[in-house]
Amino acid sequence: MLCVSLVLAVLTAFAVPPDWAYFSYPDYRTLALLFCLMLIVAGFRSLGVFQRLGGWLLRRAGGFRGLSFALTLLCFFSSMVITNDVTLITFVPFTLLVTRGVSRKGSVLSLVVFETIAANLGSMATPIGNPQNLYLYSVADMGFAQFAWAVLPYTGISLVLLAVALLFQKDEPVREFASQAPGEKLPLPPLLAMLFCLALCLLVVFRVVGYLPVLVCVALVTLLVDRRLYGAVDYALLLTFLCFFIFVGNIKRLPEVNSLLQSLVGGRELWAGILASQVISNVPAAILLSGFTGSYGVLLTAVNLGGLGTPIASLASLISFKFCAREYPGQMGRFFKIFTMWNLLFLAVLIGVAVLLT
User: Which DSSP letter does residue 185 get?
Assistant: First the structure.
């Protein structure tokens, strides 16, 4: 996606030669918040917060069905804070590790699919749950009431759908995984420092404080806590955002193209967002389409629901594909069938709800 966005930015630069207006294209607030949140989440991961939480749930889950509920709900709710991709990076490998003793591999693959759907749908509930939310909430100067109406009904329905689907999971014992319950306590000073930085970012999201002082503060705290966390930042995603900002900014300065895209997107934001997400994923779709519509609430709904469907509809889904391909290289055809079936089912139900509500 970085390569695609870079090519688009370069091609449009031939039509609109670089000038000082280029500096007005990016949404610097979104970029700063993404950078800060990546550092903070990397800090939590380095402290073992999420692995400890997963181990605690495993010891109380009992059988496979209980474990499925626990891990899926953990992905659903944790993605609201640590984003969908980080959730899957953290808990999918953990899931594959603790389910190695499960005899029915189809059940394990289904669980990973449910975790992926849960992360993609749970993350839409908050402005910091995924990059497209953070971007649209910022660029549209959206109030929380408008944001909540655009996402919370679908979040609630998604939770019900996941619970119903998980009831059909067959049960069997799951082996102990005591190594996820370390005896030593979490180091309190760095944990409190990361929590403080997270609170500052939330204040920026809700426009209580400016992003520049918080960016400086988070950068300094990270240097003091663990400078290696800078290596965990997804710089490719930040560059992808920047390239798409340049592409959209240039397109808007081409009157004929700008008018054409506005006429194509205007009044069709729901379908445009969902269909575009299937091809270029929902984050680039949000950046691209936001330049040609004022109906940001509908677009927010569209790109979040659009994360369901094809494997590239949400790039976070590719994380699950990668881990499953490594663990079960001969089962990827089966995984793709399960993934497609459940994604299309969830997408069909949620599109039906969206058509009624919008």
Answer: P
Provide DSSP, 188-214. Answer: HHHHHHHHHHHHHHHHHHTTSS-HHHH
pLDDT band at 178 (very low <50, low <70, confident <90, very high): very low
Q: What count of other Cβ atoms lies within 10 Å of the Cβ of residue 181?
A: 13
Q: How far apart are CA 247 and CA 241, in angstroms?
A: 10
Q: Is the pLDDT of residue 179 over 80?
A: no
Q: Give the contacts of 106 (CB within 8 A, at least 6 positions apart).
A: 334, 338
Taking 80 as the threshold, does the pLDDT of residue 1 lie above it? no
Query: How far apart (Å, rounded) are the C-alpha atoms in residues 132 and 271?
Result: 16
CB of 325 within 8 A of CB of 120? no
Angstrom CA distances, 15 to 2, 182, 351, stand at 21, 58, 37
Q: How far is CA 22 from the centre of its chain?
A: 28
**Distance (Å, rounded) from C-alpha 42 to C-alpha 190?**
12
Position 174 scores a pLDDT of: 63
What is the structure's pLDDT at 301? 95
- Decide: 64 and 99 in contact? Cβ < 8 Å: yes
CB 170, CB 107: distance < 8 Å: yes
C-alpha–C-alpha distance, residues 1 and 287, integer Å: 13
Q: Which residues face 63 on adjacent strands?
A: 173
Q: Indicate the burial class of 38 (C-beta count within 10 angstroms; 0-12, 13-18, 19 or more).
A: buried
- List 173's β-bridge partners, or say none: 63
**Least confident segment among 45-54, 161-170, 289-298, 332-341:** 45-54
Please give the Cα distance from 177 to 293 (Å, whole number). Answer: 50
Mean pLDDT of the chain: 86
CA nearest to 50, candidates 209, 191, 254: 191
